[in-house]
Amino acid sequence: MHDPVLPSTARTLLARTARVQRDGRAPSLVAGVVREAGLAWSAGRGAVPEPHTDVQYRLGSISKTVTAIAVMRLRDEGRLHLDDPFERHVPGTPLGDRTVGQLLAHVAGAAAESPGGWWERTPGGSLEDLGLADEHVVLGAARRFHYSNLGFGLLGELVARLRGRAWEDVVRDEVLAPLGMTRTTPRPVAPAAEGHAVHPWADVVLPEPEHDAGVMAAAGQLWATLADLARFAVFLLGDTGEVLDPATLEEMTVPAGVDPSAPGWSAYGLGLQVLRIDGRTLIGHGGSMPGFLAGVFVDREERAGAVSLANTTSGLDPLLPGLLADLRAAEPHVVQPWTPSPSPVPLDTLGVWFWGPAPYLLRALPGGLLHLGPMPGRAGRASRFARRPDGTWVGLDGYYAGEPLRIAEDHLDLGTFVFTRVPYDPTAPVPGGVDQRGWRH
Asked: Any idea which architecture 28-330 has in CATH?
């Protein structure tokens, strides 16, 4: 264990895990909490071989995040762009006009499942074997979030074609092996749990089938141990090693498609789920396959994560948000001390600016960033900004994400909005001009 939790915290975490396994009637369940150094606590419940951290379970859709990382590596190398039409890299599908980025964010309008027999319970073949047709495009491009296993099967094909190797070989060599996830494989390698369905009205189980999913493997076929999944949580906390630029990981966590049907705030970035639960933002992915449930989520502000694997098809209450809440309550993260840092702009540039009559505050943030937002107690748009090489600034989030900010002596020019030092300064280039009669009563 790395940086282990206190004994009292371990008892609390174990109690929650044990209750979820018993009440959900999972044949076996392994779970853990993660800090930046690695697995800080773990436990196995039910019929789990020891060591419980080295038993493989199916990851299901967590495989999608691994696939997305492989795609983003290609993007960072200049081999593709997120706005590329899929046809440019994998010709001949009915989704050819949809973009790579839309497929990553589940906003390409692709059918939820691949055609033919339910791919999670039947052997799979090649892309050509799927026999895709126009009917497998079910929504317009970027119209709405629509989770698509088919879309990630296609992304796995894209990775394979651009690398000239099978998807499973690419993710092993480029993602899993560099992260030390040597017990994560496309098919089970003993010791591995057997997948089960649990009868809804009796305490009996039924084995679930397991096959090679072919082209659909990229959507959910990987198996992993709790130790490997914990390493992946550390990756999501920012220890990306040589696998991915931290800025690219940050890009993947920005919500692109939002699921309005979820209770609470739920969204999807580029191969990552983004959940807002009890005021906390969790980044990661859940997974389910016949016989298995899995999850990995991290709270990057708290610098902690939680992981779980079970061999049951359904029926478990959510475990990971509770484990993170227990850890946060018992052993909250202690932030680094504040220290002075240079301002990225002259101090007299900071302070109050007015958008029309509305006062806004421009202030410096650590890391050379700026923040422009409404005065405390007032409503309005807020964004952080980073400096560009040409001296201008670009919005990082909020309403002004991607918008240019130019700082002049007497005004700020932000995406055609002009902020002035006094409300509607007649000497500044206010769009539409300022009435020469000035303020009056």
From this structure: 3-Layer(aba) Sandwich (3.40)
